[in-house]
Amino acid sequence: MTTPEDPLSQVLSLAQAHSAVSTGLEARGHWAIRVSPTQLLKCNAIRAGQCWLDVTGTRTLLETGDCFLVAPDHAFVLTTDPTLAPVAAEDVFAGSASAPYAQLDGGDGAGLRCIGGRMEFPGAAELLISALPPVAVLRAGTPAADRIRWLLDRLEDESTQAGPGSAAMSSALMQLVFIELLRGVPEVSANGWLAAVADPKLGLALQEIHRDPGRAWRLHELAKIALMSRSRFAKRFHDVVGRSAMDYLLHWRMTLAKRQLARPGVSVASIAEMLGYSSESAFGAAYRRATGKTPRGHRLSK
């Protein structure tokens, strides 16, 4: 399979990211629910009603059409009243796995309906996960939120019609929802890898690094691609990405190397050549500096 060239598609491909639809929530009255942290990326969209979202003490009022993305290893609370003690999501959703929505009855009051999903990363996803803020909220009416609303309309159609291929279609639609949310992160977070990918200048340099990671890139070459001076590019790249351009190039090469080392029959020498190293020993030294292991040691540990 050919690896895509744009950075986000490459990272999702290498991480073997795949999505699934989670059971939705229909609630009314006064309620609070806590979702425990997991290693999954999670999203929810408010289809009707409003509630508060609390992630690491940061509260946001969500309204119809708003969507949010919660990074792995972060718990979150949805509630109509932040003073209420939340119930565990596991208890609310128990026995609802085959139903489109779990029910939460908090007595008289306004209703809420939300739908969500989860994205799993069986492969190397450090680059993407480290770029995510704890939570990103996309407000209704933004272009990304409008596209997500259309996708969720199709998703709800699939859940009610349950035709041939419905499960596959639902998973594919949720994958598109997550990609739209990831694309929307730079709208709410000015720093990080996703912001750099979306940047009209830094994104050009990142795309070339990802297109040709084996090239002996020099800082002035990347700065020229980004239409910036060498010093300005170096500072801007570090400020946004959180590491220097040359360190990023090394990190990306090692990410690709780990993927190749996991493939049976691929020699260390061929990986070294693919990534632009003059010899197997030069590659081995760089790999050890970056990961603490030799390439062969990495293979033996798997």
Topology:
Elements: H1 7-14, E1 18-29, E2 32-35, E3 41-48, E4 51-55, E5 58-62, E6 67-70, E7 76-79, E8 87-88, H2 89-93, E9 101-106, E10 111-120, H3 126-130, E11 135-138, H4 143-161, H5 166-188, H6 193-198, H7 202-211, H8 219-225, H9 230-241, H10 245-261, H11 268-274, H12 280-291, H13 295-301
Radius of gyration: 22 Å
**Strand line-up across the major sheet:** 9-1-10-3-6-11
Query: What's the CATH first level of the largest domain?
Result: Mainly Beta
Q: What is the distance, rounded to the nearest whole angstrom, between the alpha carbons of the first and last residues?
A: 23 Å
Number of domains: 2
The count of β-strands is 11
CATH superfamily of the largest domain: Jelly Rolls
Identify low-pLDDT runs: none
User: Sheet with the most strands?
Assistant: 6 strands, mixed
Shape: elongated
Oligomer: single chain
Order of helices and strands: HEEEEEEEEHEEHEHHHHHHHHHH
Q: Could you tell me the strand content as a percent range?
A: 15-25%
Structural class, from helix and strand content? alpha+beta
Number of helices: 13
Question: How would you summarize what this structure contains?
Answer:
The chain is built from 13 helices and eleven strands. It is α+β, with helices and mostly antiparallel strands. The strands form two sheets. It has a six-stranded mixed β-sheet with strand order 9-1-10-3-6-11, with helices on one face. A five-stranded mixed β-sheet has the order 5-4-7-2-8.
Description:
- It is a single chain.
- The protein is α+β, with helices and mostly antiparallel strands and 302 residues long.
- The protein has 2 domains: 7-189, Jelly Rolls (Sandwich); 199-301, Orthogonal Bundle (Arc Repressor Mutant, subunit A), CATH 1.10.10.60.
- 46% of the residues lie in helices and 21% in strands.
- The chain has 13 helices and 11 strands.
- The chain has helices at 7-14, 89-93, 126-130, 143-161, 166-188, 193-198, 202-211, 219-225, 230-241, 245-261, 268-274, 280-291, 295-301; strands at residues 18-29, 32-35, 41-48, 51-55, 58-62, 67-70, 76-79, 87-88, 101-106, 111-120, 135-138.
- The strands form 2 sheets. It has a 6-stranded mixed β-sheet, covered by helices on one side. A 5-stranded mixed β-sheet has the order 5-4-7-2-8.
- Strand 4 and strand 5 (58-62) form a beta hairpin.
- The mean pLDDT is 91.
